[in-house]
Amino acid sequence: MSGIAVVGGGNWGTTFAKVLADGGHDVTLAVRRAEMAEEINDAHRNTAYLPGINLPDRIRATTDLREAITDTDYVFLSVPAQSCRENLEEIRPLLSDSAAVISLMKGVERSTGKRMSEVIAEVAAIGSDRVAVASGPNIALEIAQGQPTAILVASESDDLAMRVARIARCSYLRSFVSNDVIGTEFGGVLKNLIAIAIGIADGVGFGENTKASIMTRGLAEITEFAEALGAHRDTMMGLAGMGDLIATCMSPLSRNFTAGRLLGQGYSYVDVNSRMQQTAEGLRSVDSILEIASEEGVPMPIVQQIAAVLDGRMHPTELAPHLATDDDENPKGETA
Ligand SMILES: NC(=O)c1ccc[n+]([C@@H]2O[C@H](COP(=O)([O-])OP(=O)(O)OC[C@H]3O[C@@H](n4cnc5c(N)ncnc54)[C@H](O)[C@@H]3O)[C@@H](O)[C@H]2O)c1
Ligand SMILES: O=P(O)(O)OC[C@H](O)CO
């Protein structure tokens, strides 16, 4: 048995399939639309998601999940987090007894607050030694253009993390390994929220001081949250935390930053949703993260202000979460 499948032919799924193929592997890319599969197979292009990018011949697209998953060792999942469960329900009966499932997603499930690796283990009914996650400063289009970057692959199984890292690398993507699954996942989920705040600040017209202070306080805020949930601090200071935070907050290609900027420009949440062509996971994660933060007693002033802008309780020009403190005499974390 051998084989690699990527499920989800969007921005990231297609780019990740290209990374795997450029690393010398044959990859089956499971997509939903027949015309997309045809374009990828015949013209080696996915113009809807990666305009101007030529895809390697080693990628074969199909709309048939059975063809993609059967007898496959590694299944990489790159669909919106809210559709992870339904996609897995279709995948589960097709999985071989030893196949590993790797999440490329950066969201939590709204209905349960679960991380994607938790949803995978539950729905696919597989042990944590067959589940991995991969996350880092990975703006898809830049990687598809061959611009160099790095990614962190994490699994509770060192062996699986190493195997996935060896597959998921090529001349322009270096993979590092970790066993901090919680930190690697929360790094990706939480940086999206800070990128929305930075987008709001940008849309309002605030300058670099504002954005730098939100980013810095944001890193402290998401690190405290992630640590409370079991993440290692080092992970939050590494590629999957600070690295991804910087990339996402600074890139106009980021969908989370773009969604924030639209909010800052005065569009409502409903308008922003209808304008976004691609997945901005942060918009769907805000409520779940605040719920978990409240259960854990972790203060999240930045995320709270994003929620207030999203539901119209706060005007974007009032966004100044880095000024909020319960105790002005004893500001917390000012070494950050
Ligand atoms: N784009 C990036 O730069 C990037 C980088 C790293 C991680 N990610 C993460 O990867 C995941 C996928 O993001 P993306 O950028 O590829 O999103 P996207 O919107 O570009 O594509 C999503 C894909 O999922 C498919 N899909 C399958 N089931 C679906 C369903 N029920 N509803 C909607 N779409 C469904 C769509 O057809 C589409 O091909 C997200 O969690 C995102 O945070 C994205
Ligand atoms: O476009 P975004 O905001 O989903 O961010 C993409 C990646 O997660 C950046 O690492």
UniProtKB/TrEMBL annotation:
Annotated Glycerol-3-phosphate dehydrogenase NAD-dependent C-terminal domain ranges read: 180-319
Enumerate the Pfam families for this protein. NAD_Gly3P_dh_C, NAD_Gly3P_dh_N
The main place the protein resides is cytoplasm
Q: What is this protein called?
A: Glycerol-3-phosphate dehydrogenase [NAD(P)+]
Pathway, according to UniProt?
Answer: Membrane lipid metabolism; glycerophospholipid metabolism
Physiological role: Catalyzes the reduction of the glycolytic intermediate dihydroxyacetone phosphate (DHAP) to sn-glycerol 3-phosphate (G3P), the key precursor for phospholipid synthesis.
TM region positions? none
Which residue numbers delimit the Glycerol-3-phosphate dehydrogenase NAD-dependent N-terminal domain? 4-160
Q: Catalytic activity, per the record?
A: sn-glycerol 3-phosphate + NADP(+) = dihydroxyacetone phosphate + NADPH + H(+); sn-glycerol 3-phosphate + NAD(+) = dihydroxyacetone phosphate + NADH + H(+)
The active site is formed by: K191 (proton acceptor)
Q: Which family does it belong to?
A: Belongs to the NAD-dependent glycerol-3-phosphate dehydrogenase family.
Give the Enzyme Commission number. 1.1.1.94
Which segments of the protein form a coiled coil according to its record?
A: none
Supply the alphabetized keyword list.
Cytoplasm, Lipid biosynthesis, Lipid metabolism, NAD, NADP, Nucleotide-binding, Oxidoreductase, Phospholipid biosynthesis, Phospholipid metabolism
Binding of sn-glycerol 3-phosphate occurs at: K106, G136, K191, D244, S254, R255, N256
Q: Which SUPFAM superfamilies match?
A: 6-phosphogluconate dehydrogenase C-terminal domain-like, NAD(P)-binding Rossmann-fold domains
An MF annotation (GO) of this entry: glycerol-3-phosphate dehydrogenase [NAD(P)+] activity
Give the gene that encodes this protein. Answer: gpsA
Question: What is the native source organism of this protein?
Answer: Gulosibacter bifidus
